[in-house]
Amino acid sequence: MTALFAICATILVLSAIAVVTSRHPVHSVVALIVNFAALAVLFLTLSAEFLAMIQIIIYAGAILVLFLFVIALLTVGSDPVERTVNKLPDQAGEAVIAGLVALGFIAWGIRADWAPASAKPPADLGTVGNFGVQLLTTHVFAFEATAFVLLVAIIGVVMMAGRKEVKR
Amino acid sequence: MPQIPLAYYLDVSAAMFVIGVIGFLIRRNPLTMLMSIELMWNAGNLVFAAFARSFGDMSGQIFVFIVITVAAAEAAIALAIVVMVFRRRVDVDVDDISVLRG
After folding, report:
1. Residue of A nearest to B92 (CA)
2. Left, alpha or beta for A146 (phi > 0: left; psi -120 to 50: alpha)?
3. pLDDT in tens, A142-153
4. H helices of B4-89, where?
5. Which residues of chain A neighbour B86 with C-beta distances below 8 Å?
6. CA triplet A106, A107, A110: central angle to 5 degrees?
7. Which H or E element spans position B25?
């Protein structure tokens, strides 16, 4: 169990670094798929079975395919690699410094003394059945709000990308 | 089955989140920037799931479900905006997009 966690955590961090350092967007997508697969295994170690499934099905299956479609659409016959000319020179160094400062704050925050973990989590934590019951009873309002968010997203995307011809 | 301490999950999540932040700031390609945002979403999801197990409460996992839905909506809308912008332009560089006019 601990070895599995160590392996997956290492893959998670390394693939995240690969996502942000790859020159080509397609390589970033492939690294992101590896990242999500490792994250799904971490969800399984947290006994979140349903989350592990939707992590694979929705994230790796739907969202990343959407990314791939857009990359294919945008980079037909052109060079997808970003240009080195940067209008904000020296941004990279300051960004890394800002990120490390943020990491320091987060590390300081998570050293807090959290309440000790409950000795034994309930046996049905994260199973599909319990998840469905919770989603449609206790958290039914959030579930309906989710449906509304998706409706707004669909309408917005159709309005923006489905326009016949942009006025010149 | 020994349980892995909560702090380990928080450490991994913090590292992943900060990699996402740095990636968002140093990259100029909008697609890679969106992928960095996805990294940050998922770092947050990992914290929610870790605390859900730690407290033995399903609410954290339900919230991860909602976060994934919102992330999907965000990705769809952001990619639609990217497609819209690059129908007019050929450059793939966010520094060149300085016009905000209908």
Report:
1. A82
2. alpha
3. 999 999 999 999
4. 6-26, 30-55, 59-88
5. 74
6. 85
7. helix B6-26
Torsion of CA B54, B60, B65, B68, to 10 degrees: -90
Of A43, A74, A102, the CB nearest to B49: A43
Domain residues of chain B, as ranges? 6-90
Which residue of B21, B49, B73 is in closest CB contact with A149?
B73
- To the question of pTM greater than 0.90 for the whole model, the response is no
Whether B50 sits inside 8 A of A73 (CB atoms) is: no
Smallest Cβ distance to B92: which of A2, A80, A163? A80
The domain defined by B6-90 carries CATH number 1.10.10.10? no
Structure tokens at A67: 């990314």
Contact A66 B75 (CB under 8 A): yes
Taking only the tens place, the pLDDT of each residue in B69-96 is 999 999 999 988 888 877 776 566 676 6
